[in-house]
């Protein structure tokens, strides 16, 4: 990425965010702008499959013990629904952290395989982990810029945005790292089967999930499913479900939609004391105190 291109993206993202910190929706479907004017502590969240293009600052994202650092002209790709802890490392009021997040559409990737005849084997996956860092090349940067420029011309979005988003998917598949994202679009690959299970868990995390049932859904033996699941997410199925539950409980508490006891029940805990212990272990404070701290920080 040339410096002139990076600075153009900085201007586009600053305008789209109204120069205010936060997670901002844009007129482009499935595209968000993230802005932060100061470094922050690690914030646990669940990332949906997405391409995160950083244009200013730097960020650290952790998945269990794995750590991913990225700075311009790099990008982060998350290919499955994944609980992560991210913190901005480099940001100031004068030069805030800026990132363009683009949702990844699995059906779009699969359709590109069909239309182009692109062979998945031509871009083998370097790892089965559902997250990786790559570097923008010239053609990929061009496609990102074409998409981002529509933030200034919203009248073009209905006609041109679908084409621009499709090109971004194509450039991602064509990238040297493309083999890793390609796996979720290959019908019945181990990554695609795990991604399918993760999507189901995400919508029903408050239910009981037995490994045997999840393995059957993925058409794998329990031992094979457990190994592939951990390879993709860096955690066991039970750890994954626990993280989703606690993150949703934290959201309910901070939003004031439930007290600790009600939040515990809503996310699938039968024991309030177990919920409090596991919540404190993950977030470093009991539920009520942690929620109050976050509300005060937000204010």
Helix content: 40-55%
Tally of DSSP helical segments? 12
Largest sheet: 6 strands, antiparallel
Instruction: Please trace the helix and strand order, writing H or E for each element.
Output: HEEEEEEEEEHEHHHHHHHHHH
Question: Which strand order spans the largest sheet, edge to edge or round the barrel?
Answer: 1-2-9-4-7-10
The outline comes out as: globular
The total beta strand count reads: 10
* Mean pLDDT across residues: 90
The rounded Rg comes to: 20 Å
β-strand percent reads: 15-25%
Termini separation: 37 Å
Short note summarizing the structure:
By secondary structure, the protein is an alpha+beta fold. Helices cover 47% and strands 20% of the residues.
Keywords:
single chain, 299 residues, alpha+beta, 6-stranded antiparallel β-sheet, 4-stranded antiparallel β-sheet, 12 helices, 47% helix, 20% strand
């Amino acid at each position: 990425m040339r410096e002139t291109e990076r600075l153009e993206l900085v201007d586009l993202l600053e305008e789209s965010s109204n120069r205010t910190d936060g997670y901002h929706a844009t007129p482009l479907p499935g595209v968000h702008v993230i802005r932060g004017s100061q470094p922050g502590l690690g914030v646990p969240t669940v990332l949906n499959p997405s391409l995160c293009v950083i244009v200013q600052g730097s960020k650290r994202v952790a998945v269990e013990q794995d750590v991913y650092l990225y700075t311009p002209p790099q990008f982060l790709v998350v290919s499955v629904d994944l609980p992560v802890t991210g913190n901005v490392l480099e940001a100031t009021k004068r030069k805030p952290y800026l990132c363009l997040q683009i949702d990844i559409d699995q059906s779009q990737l699969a359709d590109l395989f069909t239309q182009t005849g692109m062979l998945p084997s031509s871009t083998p996956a370097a790892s089965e982990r559902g997250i990786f860092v790559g570097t923008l090349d010239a053609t990929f940067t061009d496609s990102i810029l074409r998409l981002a420029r529509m933030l200034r011309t919203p009248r073009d979005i209905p006609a041109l945005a679908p084409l621009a988003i499709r090109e971004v998917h194509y450039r991602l598949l064509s990238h040297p790292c493309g083999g890793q994202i390609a796996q979720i679009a290959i019908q019945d690959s181990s990554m695609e089967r795990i991604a399918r299970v993760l999507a189901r868990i995400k919508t029903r995390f408050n239910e009981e999930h037995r490994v045997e049932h999840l393995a059957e859904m993925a058409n794998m033996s329990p031992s094979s499913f457990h190994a592939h699941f951990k390879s993709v997410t860096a955690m066991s199925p039970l750890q994954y479900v626990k993280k989703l539950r606690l993150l949703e409980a934290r959201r309910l508490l901070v939003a004031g939609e439930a007290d600790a006891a009600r939040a515990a029940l809503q996310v699938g805990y039968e024991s309030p004391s177990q919920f409090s212990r596991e919540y404190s272990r993950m977030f470093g404070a009991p539920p009520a105190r942690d929620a109050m701290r976050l509300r005060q920080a937000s204010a």
